[in-house]
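Supplementary Methods S3. Input chains for the assembly prediction are listed below.
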Amino acid sequence: MENKEDLARINPVQLDGKSKLQFKCHKGLNCFTKCCRGINIMLTPYDIIRLKNRLQLTSEQFLAIYTKPELLEKTDLPVVTLKLLDDEEESCPFVKDEGCIIYEDRPTACRYYPAGVATLSNKEEHKDGFYFLINEPHCEGFKEDNIQTITEWRKDQGVDIHDEINEGWTELLVKKRSFPKNIKLTDQSKKMFFMISYNIDEFKEFVFNSSFLKRYAIEDAVIEEIKKDEKALLQFGIRWLSHILFNKDKKENSEFKTASA
Ligand code: SF4
Ligand code: SF4
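Predicted structure tokens for the full assembly:
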């Protein structure tokens, strides 16, 4: 979650899980909700599942009302960002005077803030990612007397759970980014990536109401799990994407053996 004007204020110091963060955000600060305007929030697949269920929408409806499509720099992959309101301050659609109205289901980027995570770097020294701070001048949270490590902050904000569920997806983005520029995915592959990443209802239809389960010999226990658990379905979809895009598993080890094999 980055304020468009404040990208330049990103603290260039690289942090790890043990780095200390002096910060606390709460109602009563003069800056309360200022960070929820004029921002750019890329949504992760698990963000969409949480938000569409919170708002009791289908994933298709959520995408249409609350997101706009973008191509992720250096990956050429379609992603979505939160569509801001058309008001003077370009407010997040979920911010009200009393705060975030979907707080328990807020996106991953909002949970991290004022820290950010850099997992899309393909430089060798950054291969495990790192954290950084976004020091916006209006943010009074840095003056508060509360010190936590980045690891404690991630746990406190529930971002560790989001990162775990999105892990395969993030790895896929990093892998695509490391591809030579002349290797392009087909439009069909990009459509698959978008459906699995963001339109979980459509992917469910695809798995259970097409020839998919006839083509692959998927274990019964997996089928049962993905039928009732959207998180499991998402992770299954990402494993399948890695399999078809990058031949991730050797055939004999793959969970996606063809049914006739
Ligand atoms: S303390 Fe920082 S993060 Fe919290 S409301 Fe103020 S600007 Fe936003
Ligand atoms: S989702 Fe909530 S926390 Fe995130 S920018 Fe919007 S109002 Fe703020």
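The longest strand covers residues 10-15. Confidence is low (pLDDT under 50) at residues 121-127.
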